[in-house]
Amino acid sequence: MPPAPSGSLPWRLELLGSAQLVHADGRTLRLDRRTAALLAVLALDGGDRRARLAALLWPGTPDAAARNNLVHLLRKLRAVDGAELIDASDASLRLAPGVSVDALEAPQHIGTPPRPLLAEFEYDDAPDLADWVLSQRETLSARSLAAGQKTVAVHEAAGRLREALETAERLLLADPLSEEFHRAVMRLNYALGDRPAALRAYQRAKVVLRQELGVEPLPETVRLARAIDQGELPGVPDAAIPLSALRPPNLIGRAEEWGLLEAAWTAGRGMIVSGEAGSGKSRLAVDFLRSKTSHQLLLFEGRPGDAAAPYTTHARTYRQVLDAYPDLDLPDWVRRELARIIPTLGEAPPPMTAEADKLRFYEAKVEMIRRVALRGPVILASDDLHYMDEASIEAGGYVFSRFWGDAATNLRTLFAYRSGALSAPVMARIQPLIDAGLVTLVTLAPLDEPAVGALLAEVELPGAPQLSPELYRLTSGNPQFVLEAVKAMFETGRFERAQAGAALSGDVSAVIGGRLARLTPGALHAARAAAVLQSDFSPELVADVLHIGLLDIATAWEELEAAQIMHGERFAHALVLETVLAQIPATARRLLHRSAARTLAQQGTQPARVARQWLEGGDPVQAAPWLQRAAEASAHTLRWSEAAGFYREAAALYAAANMPEEAAAVEQAAERLEEGSGRE
């Protein structure tokens, strides 16, 4: 075993197969059942409260006795070589930093399932712990298989077909019911010129699926077998898209805009970047801000669907700030006010009833940001301002105007939005800030023809000088459109003027649509469900909407990321989201919206967001009560116009559904609100 790196503990925790601690000098300490379980939970879950751990390890035991058992177990561990393997400094327990853990490391043998977690132990006497162990075993196995899938794709794209086939065969041994792995073995055998082996692989798939599941192969597998049998499948894999085409190494054609941002930075002004979809707003903003190495950079974003409910964007943004500064000291009054949008901070004050309440809420936000800035130079940057809700934009203007124009402040801010996408009320809030010199607006124009040529050279497109005029004409200098055409040419291996035109026939959505068409059904369904959710989705939430298991969604998500549809838990680009939404069949879209409404309602999401899902799902009667709740929520934050709008929308839905009593009651609520509020 190699010596422990500097700063780490000399013990390595092995949880796969036999549970043991291995010292750097070769000594081995076998772990008993409960000690192994405790260390596994701390390693894989990142720690937990003492009380929960005691209940997990000793269920059915009185609380005091269980906690005492935990104390004895910790004391026994502390006696190991005098090493502090567990951080027990507060009410929670965590694995000490520097302890290496085999279950957290990348699989050593790609495509081969890891040895089961805690394989030698059973936990039938602790049902919750047994469920946790089983879930972790499945997660580790899925992670190993997903790594294998990535390896197959990398080998195949690079032309290393033999290595790709060997990995695919190992994956199939690990999961013989996966049609995706069966198809990979079929396809790779054919690509290597062995059509009989490819067809034998198909026959094996049919036998396994019939014997184990009593089903026939999916239509996709049948089509692949037919194409192999008829010799219609290309014998070579698609060409790989170079990394430079996914993200060009250098920013092209934005020197003037960079200079404007530099001047605004020096003066301490707020910065706003606007441009058409695909113009490179995010790339310019991020590259510029990352050049400011003296400042910590925090990146936020507005998301589709945020506008449905007040303070949706700020709730997410301020949570992210607290995640970045977990030990930020906030006065009690600030925590109480922020609990209006972040319930985990404690009990919120009563609903707002006067403008003074809103002012105190905004001042709490100012105080939090002021304390962040006191910790050191920091940049708060928000992309896609056009998706943000108006309440968050109003509050943000109030908060950041307290810092703009001060060249000495530690805080810098930048926002980006799509040209023409901001509402008139929002523009009315921003324009006075620009006129007063507190904010600089930088508008991105399309690239000119020389810049398009430079971009093509940057991504090493074969025949770039000849293709540049045609791509400039087709894309009008939009960088995203240029790069989508480049990706399409690399995917087909055809670098001709005609192919450039074909790649962008109609618009870039056709290119993205081609990528969607190559997805497996599971990945496509996941993309559609995420698009319907629009804002603040996660793989787990998408799985709930689709009523599928976590392993299924994990596989689908890997495919979406590999296809450049997703980047983490967001769409790779707003254009991708819009294309996915546009291509969902009407019936499927309604069903997905209804499932999303039920799922979001169960999770306590903002009422306005649930209402929008029911409306998009074609069920206005279900939407109306949620609009009433949304009105009440808006009224509690003094958003009188929004509240009245929600009430009147609900009244119209009730009236259309021939429910006159409900319609009249809600209309009266809107009138009372307007009479008593004094309006905004």
Automatic annotation (TrEMBL):
Domain of life: Bacteria
Domain Bacterial transcriptional activator: 80-229
Gene3D superfamilies cross-referenced by the UniProt entry: Tetratricopeptide repeat domain
Pfam families membership: AAA_16, BTAD
Record-linked PANTHER family: TRANSCRIPTIONAL REGULATOR REDD-RELATED
This protein's name: Bacterial transcriptional activator domain-containing protein
Source organism (scientific name): Deinococcus ruber
